[in-house]
Amino acid sequence: EHASRSSRKICTIGIAPWGVIENRNDLIGRDVVAPYQTLLNPLSKLNVLNNLHSHFILVDDGTVGKYGAEVNLRRQLEKTINLQRIHARIGQGVPVVALIFEGGPNVILTILEYLKESPPVPVVVCEGTGRAADILAYVYKQTEEGGILPEGAECEIISTIRKTFNFSQPQALRLFHTLMKCMKNKELITVFHIVPDNHQ
Predict the structure, then answer these.
(1) How far apart, in whole angstroms, are the C-alpha atoms of residue 137 and residue 36?
(2) How far from 177 is each of 135, 144, 154, 181, 188, CA to CA, in Å?
(3) Could you tell me if 70 and 59 are in contact, meaning their C-beta atoms sit under 8 angstroms apart?
(4) CB–CB of 51/90 below 8 Å?
C-alpha cells in the first residue's frame, strides 16, 4: 500500500508573474531543459521559482518587478477546476482549498479574496515556510475571539511586516489591516506547522 501511495505523483502548479522572476530569460525556449538557480539573491528585488512545484504557469502582462498579474488568471483557473464534475450523478465539483506556502504581500490580499468568495475558499497556511505564511500563522495564533490582539502584538506584527517585505510604515499598516480583515473569517483558516524532515 505504501509503495502505491508513494508512486503517485502529486502535481503542484505554481502561478507567478513573469516580471518578478530572477533569471527569467534563462527559461525562454521551446523544448529546452535549462538549469535554474533557486537560491535567492538577497540584493535582488526579484524572486526565484519555488522548487517544490512540479509545474509553473508564468503570467506576463509586460510589467517588471510588479506582482498582481497572476491573480486573475489563478482565480479563473481555480473556478474552472471547481466547475469540473468528479461525480456525474451527484454533480459534485472539484473542491478548492488555498494552500499558502511562503509568499509575498500579495498573498495576504489574495487570502482575503478567497475568504470573501461565495462560497468562501478555505485556507491552509503552512507555518514554517517563511514570509507571508509565517506572518499569517503568527497573527492567527495571536488573534483572540472577536478579532482582538493582546497588548503590544499590533506593533510587533507591523514591525515584522516592515522587516519581512521591506515596507514603509504606511504600507505595513495597510497590510496589517488586511490581515485583521482575514481574521474575521478565522474559522476558514487552518494553520499547519511544517516540520523539517531530518530523516533523509
Answers:
(1) 30
(2) 13, 16, 10, 6, 18
(3) yes
(4) no
Helix segments in 43-197, DSSP class H: 69-83, 105-116, 131-142, 153-165, 169-182
Q: What is the DSSP string of 4-24?
A: HHHHSPPP-EEEEEGGGBTTG
Max alpha carbon distance in the chain (Å)? 56
Amino acid identity of residue 24, one-letter, is: R
Report in angstroms the alpha-carbon separations of 100 from 64, 107, 123, 194. Answer: 24, 8, 7, 12
Let me know: does 22 contact 32? Beta carbons within 8 Å: no
Instruction: Tell me the pairing of strands 189-193 and 98-100.
Output: unpaired
Region class of 16: left (phi > 0), else alpha (psi between -120 and 50), else beta = beta
Residue 183 DSSP code: G
Q: What is the pLDDT along the chain (200 residues), one digit of tens a residue?
A: 444 444 567 778 888 899 989 888 888 888 877 777 777 777 777 888 877 788 889 999 998 888 778 888 888 888 888 888 777 677 677 788 899 988 889 899 999 999 998 889 999 999 999 999 999 999 999 998 878 899 999 999 999 999 999 999 999 999 999 999 999 999 999 999 987 665 44
